[in-house]
Write a structure and sequence with these properties.
- The protein has helices at residues 2-44, 50-63, 71-81, 86-92, 113-122, 133-142, 145-160, 171-181, 191-202, 213-219, 239-253.
- With 266 residues, the chain is mainly alpha-helical.
- It has one domain (2-253).
Length: 266
């Protein structure tokens, strides 16, 4: 009996010794992620980039980041002081204000291909989708890269607006997998990879994002708290990959069954 007791004790001690490095590694990883998030929040505290401010408003509503509580107010200040950009800024203000109103001609300011994909979804609870919208989504998704990621964003907005688009069977699953495939397994982190990861988290498809991607994102953060458009190119931080990286890392740091929607609700 004594031998059995000694054997069991030895097994317990051995398992404990093996577990300690794993626990320490996980704690170290979590600490690095928290530091990266803190630095990224500091990076955006004084940002005047309007579309970053919209994302900051989403982050405030979703994660309660106090530093971003005035993001919509700052967005409106930018809008008021840049009348030449106002029509398009008013269109996307809907992200942060459910009761956002448009002026005549605002929708005519839309010119980018990706905006023609996302804006109908953004206002789908108010206006009927174009008759050819399902075809537009399929064609855009087939182009890959940013068109593919923005089809996913549009899909998220359709769900949040409780609007159904008649798509072929398996469209959503194929859309999710195609976005996940944009995230390569090398150590380079690019803007489109960050966008795919962020939008997959928006869509609730956490399991499709490579579990090692967060560590890669943290590893290539710039000293100022931002990220480059591609980590293998020497460059200054850019707001776009930086806000996507912050949004993604906040989800990793604060896992939950569900989150508040991206679009502000009534």
């Amino acid at each position: 009996m004594r031998r059995i007791f000694v054997f069991v004790l030895c097994v317990i001690v051995a398992c404990s010794l093996l577990a300690v490095p794993i626990v320490l590694q996980n704690a170290n990883t979590a600490s690095h992620q928290q530091q990266a998030v803190t630095k990224a929040i500091d990076y955006f505290k004084n940002s005047a980039e309007p579309y970053a401010l919209l994302w900051m408003d989403v982050i405030h509503r979703r994660f309660g980041i106090a530093a971003f509580a005035d993001a919509l107010q700052r967005y409106d200040q930018y809008l008021a002081s840049h009348p030449d950009e106002a029509p398009l800024l008013r269109v996307f203000r809907r992200i942060a204000d459910y009761n956002n109103t448009l002026q005549d001609g605002d929708l005519q300011a839309i010119s980018a291909d990706i905006d023609h994909i996302t804006v109908p979804a953004l206002y789908s609870d108010r206006d009927e989708l174009p008759a050819d919208y399902p075809i537009m989504l399929q064609d855009a998704a087939s182009q890959g890269q940013y068109m593919l990621t923005h089809v996913l964003l549009a899909w998220v907005w359709l769900q949040e607006n409780s609007v159904t688009a008649q798509m072929p069977s398996g469209f959503a699953e194929n859309l999710y997998r195609a976005n996940a495939a944009l995230i390569n397994d090398d150590n380079t982190v690019t803007d489109v990879e960050l966008e795919a990861a962020a939008f997959l988290y928006l869509a609730g498809q956490v399991g499709l994002v490579d579990s090692n991607f967060a560590a890669k994102v943290v590893a290539v953060q710039n000293s100022d708290g931002g990220w480059r458009l591609s980590s293998d190119v020497a460059d200054t931080s850019n707001w776009h990959p930086s806000i996507l990286a912050l949004f993604f890392l906040l989800h990793v740091e604060h896992p939950a069954e569900s989150y508040p929607p991206m679009l502000a609700q009534d």
